[in-house]
Amino acid sequence: MKHKMLKTPKFFKRLKSQPIEVILFFCASFSIIVLFLMLLFTVKEGFFAFSKFGLNLILGQRWDTNRNMYGAFPLIYSSFMVVSGALMISVPLGVSTSIFIVEVMPFSLRDIFKSTIELLASIPSVIYGFIGKITLAPFIASLFGLFSGENALTASLILAVMTTPTIIGISGEIIAAVPKDYKEAALALGATKWQTVKGIVLPLSKSGILASVMLGFGRAIGETIAVLMVAGNVAKIPTPPWNYLDPVYPVTAVIAMQMGEAAVGSLEYSALFGLGLILFVITFIVNTLADLIVKKGSLKRGAKL
Amino acid sequence: MNGIVKERLIFATLGIPMLFCLLAFIWIVGTLLTGIGTVNWKLLTTSVLKGGIFEMIIGTMYLLLGAAGIAGPIGVLAAVYLVEYAPSGKLTRMLDQSINNLAGVPSVVIGLFGYTFFCRQLSLGVSLAAGWLTLALMMLPIVIRGTEEAIKMVPASFKEAALALGATRWRAVSSTTLSASMPGIVTSVILGMARVAGETAAILFTACVSVTRGLPRSPFEPVMALSYNLFVQIVALGTPAQRVFGIALVLFSIVASLAIFAIILRTHYRRKQPWLR
User: Tens digits of per-residue pLDDT, B210-267?
Assistant: First the structure.
């Protein structure tokens, strides 16, 4: 308690006596200022729609610009549907790949493969969307005998390809951070390599892997351009609700498609900012939770050592 | 013996998903390469008004360089603060957390914010400058994290030597730590550029229009960009795939060469500098 009271005034005194530190501090607090402004301005612009529809903006069943009806439930449902479909593919793919890279791959190959993954992660979403539209969508259409291959399944597949590098990157880091002593201890006791992975590496990196999945979720739900090009963009909950072969219209796609036509200050404009606010809040919560999990996990591991 | 075979089998199965990732990469590059016939010198250097893509390429460059010029200095200084100056406490933890949160904001939300704040509140309009600021917000977390990593790799003894000679803290940090970590810093800025080079959602409402008359003459004019025009051509116009392929391929080569350049730079300097293992 005592050192806490001493700390704050000392910190501000230093800020005053050395101008360079003020500049540095300002740069470091830039992110927090921007986040605050972002929240402020999306709330301000979305206020009109929220005051008119209240919770119906989130729970309403109908999104129809022509009738000025803005109920985002089908859009939010679409987003979650596409993202969960993507994660069902990319999580097992990403986690097993990162185990393979860290535990099996020879060191010389590891760097090359990691660079390829990094390259895969930096391919722009507009290119993923383009390729999905001209190759994957026709393939899905002919596979299932559909008129158009632009539906939730295609969007999920494209999103899966896009989120896998994120999951590999983060869970790979976590798996590589498992202390060597632990693994060597297990191996010295006669455990095989797979037993070591199963009994030591995976349990220790469980929370980190969970965090990587959550970050992947955050990345996927915010993905816009690629999803927009292959999702079909029909604002209706599929029938039956788990039908992945129906077109969907995720939240991000709606914002990107309708923002250009919405007159500034209109109800539609405000409703789109309402959608932006929903997205902002979802990703903010998911990212904060993921960070907490990572920090808690590493603290626990430190205490054990 | 049986155990070993089983073990190998398990690890081999783990490797199959990895092949999927490689296949995905080959699929994307392969599909793009089928359009290589549409790219030639004439397409790259002819004005958009005459069927080329010259303004889009230059527009993308303008956007990238401007965003790097804003996010680079701010990001590096922020990283210096967080590594070298920040006291460990609640405020520092909050600053650190907010960088992760900024990195997690969906690009389309950043675009919405850019429109209402930069374009309307600061009355920049749909312009190059608004695009710079919006893209800089996306680059910032990448630059900060990369720079932090680079600074942390420099041994403390470098800085301590300068401090022992009587340098002030800032002198010591800027003359030893910063210069020793310069390759890492440059790498992170280039990686940040690669990450935003193909960004579409963030500049959709803030910086771009589908056709301009020539290049922007000031930062307050709208600009054309490869990513935006690719998006427009695919979604709205339905242009024959040929020209679209050309744009996609050029965009991909810009992004890929930036990323590869950054990766090579990083490996090169890690090898060259003995204190980096």
Answer: 787 778 888 888 899 999 999 988 887 666 667 788 888 999 999 999 999 998 888 8
Is the whole model's pTM more than 0.95, yes or no? no
pLDDT in tens, A114-155: 888 888 888 899 999 988 988 898 899 999 888 888 899 999
Which chain A positions have a beta carbon within 8 Å of B22's beta carbon?
A: 116
CATH of the domain at A258: 1.10.3720.10
How many angstroms separate the CA atoms of A35 and A47, rounded?
18
How far apart are alpha carbons A178 and B241 in whole angstroms?
48
Q: Which of residues 137-176 of B touch A (CB under 8 A)?
A: 137, 140-141, 144, 169-170
Residue A297 lies in a domain: yes
Q: Which residue type is seen at B249?
A: L
In this structure, is residue B84 part of a structural domain? yes
pLDDT in tens, B6-63: 878 888 887 788 788 788 888 888 888 887 877 888 888 888 888 788 889 999 999 9
CB-CB neighbours of A68 under 10 Å: 11
Residue B78's closest CA among B98, B50, B51?
B98
Q: Is residue A253's pLDDT more than 80? A: yes
DSSP A69: E
What's the length of chain B?
277
Nearest residue, CB atoms, B109 vs list A103, A124, A280: A280
Residue B29 lies in a domain: no
Secondary structure (3-state) at B91: helix
Number of independent structural domains in chain A: 1
- pLDDT of A2 strictly over 60: no
Alpha-carbon span A286 to B190, nearest angstrom: 28
Residues in chain A: 305
